[in-house]
């Protein structure tokens, strides 16, 4: 906790995080985000002005973030301010229920308007270029192409199953069933879903599993839990989110798509291409692991734009 944070606020924040972990079972990444946001608030000068007596400290803190730079010296985007406001509201609801505050502070905190940013998916032919650029296009030689085979298997799976990058890097061998062409994923909120995996991705995953992964796994001699991580780095440890981003970044540069492709771009492309192919919106929601259909509906607007593009290009009087 930052120096100067009131001791009673430190205890309240830690109690709230424990509540989120034990009673609500939130994912580790979500807990980390809540903790970082609340510790920044706790270390702010506003929080030292009676955080438990009035909504004024929280209102002043969030107002400052909206008008000046955040902790890193950069003005926070609306999405970041919305997340921080949500964290503080949730904390104060907990504090009120536990009789740690005297007033309902959360009722005085309004969430910033959520920007409706449309995803920028790749076209089918662009995805094909990206995947080809990630790994060998001919018959791969495991001795020469270990890295490219791993990269190709990762990107093929991201696109085939629409995974979040954290879901892909968090996979263990026991989560993959290549014979059944399925992958078991634990998504946000520890929600489990069983997803189909296409034939092409299964083929690349099988090549990686049989010819590359065993050698990588042997580099790091630790007890293997649940079969060990699926995706490994060059030192035999679990591939990190940043390493996965670097894989996509390098493939995008090689494919002439620099600046247009991230791991999440493949997830956006997965959803868009399914809907363009006639998939039901509810099915896409289940595949993506969205808690609300409204989150998935952003893709219906996107595909509507594609329909208009095709119409304008194809109709003689458009």
State the end-to-end distance: 61 Å
The count of domains is 2
Q: What is the level-2 CATH architecture name of the largest domain?
A: Orthogonal Bundle
Helix content: 55-70%
Largest sheet: 3 strands, antiparallel
The name of the CATH superfamily of the largest domain reads Intergrase catalytic core
The helix/strand series, from N terminus to C terminus, equals HHHHHHHEEEHHHHHHH
Number of helices: 14
Mean pLDDT: 88
* CATH fold descriptor of the largest domain: hpI Integrase, Chain A
Please report the first level of CATH classification, the CATH class of the largest domain. Mainly Alpha
What's the count of strands? 3
Give the overall shape, derived from the CA principal axes: globular
What's the arrangement of strands in the largest beta sheet? 1-2-3
Overview of this structure, please?
The protein is mainly alpha-helical and 318 residues long. It is built from 14 helices and 3 strands. It has helices spanning 7-22, 28-42, 56-67, 78-97, 124-134, 142-161, 165-169, 199-211, 213-219, 241-254, 263-276, 281-288, 293-296, 298-314; strands spanning 176-177, 182-186, 192-196. Strands 1-2-3 form a 3-stranded antiparallel β-sheet, with no helix packed on it. The protein is globular, with a radius of gyration of 23 Å. The mean pLDDT is 88.
Provide a quick synopsis of the model.
By secondary structure, the chain is mainly α. It has 14 helices and 3 strands. It folds into 2 domains: 7-108, Tyrosine recombinase, N-terminal domain (DNA polymerase, domain 1, Orthogonal Bundle), CATH 1.10.150.130; 124-314, Intergrase catalytic core (hpI Integrase, Chain A, Orthogonal Bundle), CATH 1.10.443.10.
């Amino acid at each position: 906790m930052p120096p100067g944070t009131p001791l009673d606020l430190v205890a309240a924040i830690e109690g709230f995080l424990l509540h989120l972990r034990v009673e609500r079972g939130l994912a580790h990444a979500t807990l980390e985000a809540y903790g970082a946001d609340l510790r920044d608030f706790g270390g702010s000068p506003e929080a030292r002005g009676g955080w438990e007596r009035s909504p004024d400290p929280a209102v002043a803190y969030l107002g400052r973030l909206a008008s000046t730079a955040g902790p890193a010296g950069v003005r926070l985007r609306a999405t970041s301010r919305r997340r921080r406001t949500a964290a503080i509201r949730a904390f104060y609801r907990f504090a009120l229920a536990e009789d740690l505050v005297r007033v309902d502070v959360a009722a005085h905190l309004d969430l910033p308007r959520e920007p409706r940013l449309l995803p920028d998916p790749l076209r089918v032919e662009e995805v094909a270029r990206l995947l080809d650029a990630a790994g060998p296009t001919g018959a791969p030689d495991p001795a020469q192409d270990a890295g490219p085979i791993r990269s190709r298997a990762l990107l093929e799976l991201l696109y085939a199953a629409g995974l979040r990058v954290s879901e892909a890097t968090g996979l263990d061998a026991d989560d993959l069933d290549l014979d059944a062409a399925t992958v078991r994923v634990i998504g946000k909120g520890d929600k489990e879903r069983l997803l189909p995996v296409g034939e092409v991705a299964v083929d690349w995953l099988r090549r990686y599993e049989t010819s590359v992964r065993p050698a990588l796994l042997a580099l790091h001699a630790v007890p293997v839990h649940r079969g060990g991580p699926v995706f490994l780095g060059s030192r035999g440890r679990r591939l990190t989110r940043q390493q996965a981003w670097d894989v996509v970044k390098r493939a995008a540069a090689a494919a002439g798509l620099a600046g247009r492709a991230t791991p999440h771009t493949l997830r956006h492309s997965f959803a868009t291409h399914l809907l363009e192919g006639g998939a039901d919106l509810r099915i896409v929601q289940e595949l993506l692991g969205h808690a609300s259909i409204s989150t998935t509906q952003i893709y219906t607007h996107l595909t509507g734009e594609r329909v208009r593009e095709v119409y304008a290009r194809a109709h003689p009087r458009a």
